[in-house]
């Protein structure tokens, strides 16, 4: 049996061991096959290791259960890396290898059984998430999607499917039958079981069944109608969320196009509905949780709280910088948990104050990674910039003071960090303690940032701007150009654009055209020795023998169509691919072999080399591999 190394406390490990199956076989990692990697020096045949983060990332759903001894377990479903489990309300480990690399849509607990829907279908765990069994028997076979929601009435388990309505299981999920009579052709998005009532919300409104799903009828008479532009057709607003507090039912509507209609409540099991409060009118509703004394609703505007079962509401706050992004709530007195694009948050005072609870939970999408002085800086999708001064052993968020966490590009100017977001370009001179906006581009996204001889170049909406005084003054050095990447060789600056490559030898004042006009665009530039190379879409590596005037294609490879980024160590090339991991070349790109021993995440978003380590930014944080000195 293997226990995740992120669990540092011996007593916590012991508690976890007691929870999992005692006869679960030990996972044996195969030995490295050096016969396939004779070109790689022996000192480079060690395995990849995952750094301790950056922690966080998109959390889609939450669930809670207790063991037979009363210990509380929390489960978090991630957008792409399976389920995580916590025994101490804040430290997380991976739960189950069967779904470890899948996106999770929803989690549901029925007694001691945990149900999870994923990208490939539905699963159940009977050992607190240690192992998972596939539960797809009875669902349509053409293409199985995970359920949008589960519920149970004690006798049956029900699953709401996005395109096939409601399914029912009488044997704890082992087999399923469709129970759709009266639901029409609509899929279902949410479910609620209470005594002999079963409610389902979908694009046709809200429905109820009193015979375990055999027959359904509409409960839409007092709900508003969505009127289409041609005014000849109308429909009920789609119901995405349903929740019962006491004997009061709440439903949250989503949107068709730009139209949505808020939170509604019923005191008579759906016969009549009223707008829960005027503050929810025309507001997207993401999640409802709590009880009659502490009821919470997350919306596109933030989180609202009611202490009297929805009679009165007060705005709590919006914990996220990315306003309008979904927040899923789970209330377990006295704790309120929020699952969001930026990770997991918890509050002990009805949502007034929050703290991040992401230790050990890695679902971060590392789109950029660079060395900054003696440290590493990583640009994370929806989370901004994280910083490590100990080669990935610890990471800290350094961009909390920046208005937007929408990561666009990351680089460094000496020991300074440059970070571009959708609203401008930021500079930090003190490892992220303080930031200053050196270029305000609201409404004009900065896609690329490049530094050459202390001159900053940015690409923003078909213009290339440059600054020689750390952003105090800016000049336009190229217009009406679609930039793919910047590069450099000595004093020469290169720009890859939609029609080829141009270069400048006078800091961008004048530009010349390279002889290379590729039929595919240049993805990135790189330097190898005293030459410049380019990675071409669907073509692979090309290297220039004459400072960029002409280019020579290297030998084709089956990997080329997958190449996304390049890192260079001496004469070695490393390429990150879309889903084949890292590949390695010892002959300047003529031949390539896999370089993935121990690398569990094969979706490589960024690469960099620092202190004899190759770092890979993936969809599950940062991984690293030692390199040989040449």
What does this structure look like?
With 630 residues, the protein is mainly β. Helix content is 2%, strand content 47%. The protein contains one helix and 62 strands. The strands form 17 sheets. The protein has a four-stranded antiparallel β-sheet, with no helix packed on it. Strand 25 (263-266) and strand 26 (274-275) form a beta hairpin. The longest helix has 10 residues, at 10-19. The chain is elongated, with a radius of gyration of 27 Å. It starts with 9 loop residues before the first helix and ends with a strand. The model is unreliable at 1-8 and 13-37 (pLDDT under 50).
Given helix and strand content, the structural type is mainly beta
Radius of gyration: 27 Å
Number-wise, the strands total 62
> Order of strands in the sheet with the most strands?
1-62-61-60
The fraction of residues assigned to DSSP E strands is over 45%
> What distance separates the N and C termini?
39 Å
Q: Biggest sheet, open or closed, and with what strands and sense?
A: 4 strands, antiparallel
Helix percentage? under 10%
Average pLDDT reading: 85
Shape descriptor reads elongated
Unreliable stretches covering 5 or more consecutive residues? 1-8, 13-37
Number of helices: 1
Query: How would you describe the oligomerization state of the chains in this entry?
Result: single chain
């Amino acid at each position: 049996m293997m226990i995740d190394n992120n669990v540092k406390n011996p007593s916590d490990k012991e508690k976890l061991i007691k929870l999992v199956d005692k006869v679960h076989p030990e996972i044996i990692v195969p030995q490295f096959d050096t016969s396939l990697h004779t070109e790689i020096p022996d000192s480079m045949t060690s395995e990849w290791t995952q750094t301790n983060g950056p922690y966080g990332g998109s959390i889609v759903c939450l669930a809670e259960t207790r063991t037979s001894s009363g210990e509380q377990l929390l489960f978090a479903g991630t957008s792409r890396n399976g389920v995580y489990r916590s025994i101490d309300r804040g430290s997380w480990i991976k739960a189950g290898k069967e779904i470890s690399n899948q996106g999770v849509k929803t989690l549901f607990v029925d007694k001691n059984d945990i149900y999870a829907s994923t990208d490939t279908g539905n699963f159940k765990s009977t050992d607190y998430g240690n192992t998972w069994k596939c539960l797809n028997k009875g669902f349509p076979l053409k293409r199985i999607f995970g359920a949008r929601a589960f519920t149970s009435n004690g006798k049956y388990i029900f699953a709401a499917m996005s395109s096939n309505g409601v399914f029912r299981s009488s044997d704890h999920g082992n087999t399923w039958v469709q129970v759709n009579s009266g639901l029409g052709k609509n899929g279902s998005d949410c479910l609620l079981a209470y005594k002999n009532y079963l409610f389902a919300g979908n694009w046709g409104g809200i429905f109820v069944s009193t015979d375990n799903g055999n027959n359904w009828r509409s409960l839409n008479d007092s709900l508003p109608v969505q009127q289409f532009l041609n005014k000849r057709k109308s429909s009920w607003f789609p119901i995405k969320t349903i929740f019962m507090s006491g004997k009061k039912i709440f439903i949250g509507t989503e949107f068709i196009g730009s139209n949505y209609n808020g939170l509604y409540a019923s005191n008579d099991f759906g016969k009549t509905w009223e707008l829960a409060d005027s503050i929810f009118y025309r507001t997207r509703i993401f999640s409802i949780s709590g009880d009659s004394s502490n009821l919470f609703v997350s919306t596109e505007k933030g989180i609202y709280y009611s202490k009297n079962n929805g009679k009165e509401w007060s705005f709590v706050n919006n914990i996220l910088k990315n306003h309008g992004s979904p927040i899923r709530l789970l209330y377990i007195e006295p704790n309120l948990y929020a699952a969001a694009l930026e990770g997991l948050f918890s509050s002990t005072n009805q949502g007034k104050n929050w703290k991040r609870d992401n230790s050990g939970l890695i679902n971060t999408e590392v789109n950029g990674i660079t060395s900054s002085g003696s440290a590493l800086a990583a640009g994370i999708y929806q989370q901004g910039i994280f910083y490590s001064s100990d080669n990935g052993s610890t990471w800290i968020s350094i961009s909390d003071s920046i208005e937007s966490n929408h990561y666009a590009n990351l680089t460094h100017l000496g020991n300074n960090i440059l970070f571009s977001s959708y609203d401008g370009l930021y500079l930090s001179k003190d490892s992220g303690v303080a930031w200053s906006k050196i270029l305000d581009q609201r409404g004009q996204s900065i896609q690329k940032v490049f530094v050459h001889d202390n001159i900053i170049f940015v690409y923003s909406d078909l213009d290339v701007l440059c600054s020689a005084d750390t952003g105090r003054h800016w000049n336009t050095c190229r217009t009406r150009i679609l930039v793919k990447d910047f590069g450099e060789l000595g004093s020469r600056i290169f720009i890859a654009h939609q029609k080829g490559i141009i270069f400048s030898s006078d800091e961008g004042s004048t530009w010349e055209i390279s002889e290379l006009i590729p039929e595919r665009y240049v993805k990135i530039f790189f330097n190898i020795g005293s030459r410049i190379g380019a990675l071409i879409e669907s073509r692979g590596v090309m290297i220039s023998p004459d400072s960029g005037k002409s280019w020579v294609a290297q030998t084709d490879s089956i990997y080329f169509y997958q190449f996304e980024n390049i890192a260079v160590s001496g004469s070695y090339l490393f390429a990150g691919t879309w889903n084949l991991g890292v590949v390695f070349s010892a002959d300047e790109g003529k031949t390539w072999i896999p370089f993935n021993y121990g690398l569990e995440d094969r979706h490589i978003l960024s690469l960099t080399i620092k202190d004899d380590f190759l770092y890979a930014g993936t969809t599950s944080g940062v991984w690293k591999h030692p390199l040989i000195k040449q």
